[in-house]
Design goal:
Number of helices: 7
Bound molecules: zinc ion
CATH architecture of the domain at 31-209 and 222-255: 4-Layer Sandwich
CATH superfamily of the domain at 31-209 and 222-255: Ribonuclease Z/Hydroxyacylglutathione hydrolase-like
Helix content: 10-25%
Length: 315
């Protein structure tokens, strides 16, 4: 993905306010997360079939169904083996369905390492973005999505039901949100990477101006969710015994819906601060948000100079 520096961002017209430097640090972290990071898995479901796998460039969800495993995001290239080893600790089924929440290598890099996947699903713009990537050229074109979502798609019934939503541009122009209504869990991928400055990939249709509206639509339309899994935050990995080194961690503690609401408020305020700064002829860096880790809770809080985002204590 393209990383925007401050000087470039400051030159960009108001319609493309991307707060360049403010997002650059986050963008670099996003793009350069090492593939060698260990991949760790923990259950998200009381029935022990929905897991989150951290590491490998970004979070991944795995739903262990009787007829095959559903993998949501396949991490950086080369992560397939470690993902497979984690999955095999709880399922003897192959990965049969992949959902890519955006086109980036940290979401799609492992697709080619799951040749038994019969369906690969993504938002239609994400498929178009993936078609431009070298990783999906030639024989690897078979690892491109073979099923696309315009606005919404439902998969499976009963406790496994998944709703895939597209609410508009944000991180890219094809970010999917994955909701498990029966489990009251939603996965926001890189639309909510962590409590940190947003990462916007303008080259793939992302928009800092549209992101707050997209998050607001998601908050208005998705109902009944208790737990939110982000694209990158790893404070989810609360270990019963941190020294055990066990691959499966107990006591998962993803973020709550109110954390998402706080992040949406922060993005709205952040955009307003950038727009105000640019209108006043100040460099966009003056609106740079300040993010700090609160050590007591290991949660990050972000503030814009203009307004302070509502703080919430994790439950
Ligand atoms: Zn991304």
């Amino acid at each position: 993905m393209r990383i925007f520096d401050l000087a470039r961002a400051a030159r960009i017209a108001i319609g493309a306010v991307v707060a360049g430097a403010a997002i650059a640090a986050a963008a670099i972290a996003h793009a350069q997360a090492p593939a060698t990071q260990p991949i760790r898995m923990q259950t998200l479901s009381v029935y022990d079939i929905l897991y989150v796998l951290t590491g490998g460039g970004g979070n991944t969800l795995a739903l262990m169904r009787d007829d095959g495993v559903v993998l949501i995001d396949t991490k950086n290239p080369g992560s397939g083996k470690a993902l497979q080893e984690n999955i095999e600790s709880v399922s003897d089924k192959p990965v049969t369905t992949i959902v890519n929440t955006n086109a980036h290598a940290n979401r799609t890099g492992g697709n080619a390492e799951f040749p038994k996947a019969v369906q690969i699903i993504a938002q239609e713009h994400t498929k178009a973005n993936m078609q431009k990537m070298d990783a999906f050229k030639g024989p690897n074109a078979r690892f491109l999505p073979n099923k696309t979502v315009a606005d919404r798609m439902t998969l499976f019934d009963g406790p496994d039901r998944m709703e895939l939503y597209y609410f508009g541009r944000g991180h890219t122009d094809g970010d999917l949100i994955v909701v498990f209504p029966e489990k009251r869990v939603a996965y926001f991928g890189d639309l909510f990477p962590a409590k940190a400055a947003p990462v916007i990939d303008v080259a793939n249709g992302g928009s800092a101006v549209e992101l707050p509206k997209t998050l607001a639509r998601a908050i208005a339309e998705i109902k009944g969710i208790a737990r939110v899994v982000t694209g990158h935050d790893t404070t989810i990995a609360v270990m019963a015994n941190g020294a055990s080194g066990s691959a499966i961690f107990a006591n998962p503690r993803p973020m709550a819906w109110k954390d998402l609401e706080e992040y949406a408020d922060f993005n709205r305020d952040f955009l307003a601060a950038v727009q105000e700064a640019m209108k006043a002829g100040k460099p966009a860096a003056d609106a740079r948000p300040h993010c700090s880790c609160r050590s007591a809770t290991r949660r990050t809080t972000c503030r814009t100079p203009a307004r302070t985002s509502r703080r919430s204590t994790p439950s």
